[in-house]
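Minutes, project check-in

Agenda point 3 was the complex the collaborators sent over. CS summarized: two entities, 531 residues total, and the question is how they sit relative to each other. Sequences were read into the notes so everyone works from the same version.
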Amino acid sequence: MAEYMVFIWDDEQAWEHADPGTVEQTMAAHRAFMTRHAAALRGGNRLHPSGVSTSIRHTVDGGVAVSDGAFAETKEVIGGYYLIEAADLDEALRIAADVPAPFGGVELRPVLPAS
Amino acid sequence: MNPVVAAAVADAHRTEWGRVLAAAARLTGDLDAAEECAQDAYADALASWTEHGVPDRPGAWLITVARRRAMDIIRRRDTLRGKLPLLAGHDDVGGGPGTAGEDEAFPDDRLRLIFTCCHPTLAPDARVALTLRLLCGLTTAEVASAFLTSEPTMAARITRAKKKIAAARIPYRVPGPGELPERLAAVLDVVHLVFTTGHTAPAGPALQRRDLAERALDLARMLRLLLPDQPAVAGLLALILLTDARRHARTDPAGRLLRLAEQDRARWDPGEISEGLALAREALRRRPYTRYPLMAAIAATHATAPAPGAPDWAQILALYDQLIAIWPSPIVALNRAIAVGEAHGPAAGLAALDTLAAEPQLAGYHYLPAARAEYLRRLDRHEEARLAYDEALLLAGNSTERQFLATRRAQLPHAT
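CS then shared the predicted structure for the full assembly.
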């Protein structure tokens, strides 16, 4: 078995302008997803919008530079994640393809196990 | 070096490489190690066969030696076991369909290997590269030259793909029945691409790259052997055979390109034609039709034309209509437009071609202006035809095709 991170990338603007019905539907779809895949789920959360992010970079002189906002300015940002466990990529793909993502898509990335 | 032994090793390299590597990969669970085992087995063969003679079943001999190497590697690895990521599913017993081979000591794992190499989560160019390297035993340099890439670029591409297979745990397994059609389509596309690259090389002095065309034929035959019930496989093998059967007839003794209508059909390979026709019939027995059975049907209609260059164009057009409904690619649309022109006259063909002018996937594809030039010529619009030939000549990379286009252009009557 191996762990995979499922990053949910979506368009924050679309989220912001979504009507309450769509938002509720999506939340219900996530609850249903979590029930269906409870056995494989190792964690997961929705994140606050990237507007409240803080980015921290280490500078060459050994200091720390803190700035307001996401790390990279992109239309789609990480809005949530799931940590799942699966036997192989095929199994992980089946689970990841089931993640509701009406305003974007998901990225599936294997976790490098700590040795 | 004993020439008989050298020839036997070379022959076994071509026919057995994929099986030897696949058998080792099942044990090592690691493609790099499996390649090492296969290489060692062939090196041993050269020495051992020189001394003891070529064995009755070279493939079984090579697999036995490669498996022994694999066991050594596993033992060595176990003593310094880290967190080496191994191929997921490599130690599953049984391999789903295709492990048959009653008279062989070991199951044939080439299906697992090709499904791993052609996994949809790998980039399409990486699928082709891995297949040629791991299933066919081409060197990185040979793969690079097939796809007009530099060797370091190709090496990096292969390394990256292997890393992904291990780290993301792409399974070493034949997909289950539910996934098989979609996954098989990805495998067949790789084999088809290898074939088309060999049948008409995208660049270079020779019209064909026989090495690639033959590898594609080998791969298609392997898939047919291991998946005998799949119409898509029968369709692809039929398509390859019916197209490849014309290999000796495609150029004249001076190496000039001949159109289908000009080819001497006595030089078509009769064995490949009849085998291809039988497979095409078989592939078309099951509905709904998929891509390769339909393409095989088109090739079969050409192969059974009552007179040279005069196939049943109405039927070919009807087949393209079906093909484009399930496979709406711009290349299919281009071929369909040519069928329109042959079935309904050059004006209709030109009109169909002109609807594709803005298609971004066809920009830079020399067959579009070449086909336009042909219909403009038939409509006696010679000046426009000349310009279309010029455009095709700018885009064509294969010297034989360029020479053909230049000759056609020169044959246009000059304005008086």
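Noted in discussion: The first strand of chain A starts at residue 2 and ends at 11.
Follow-up: revisit at the next meeting once the mutant set is ready.
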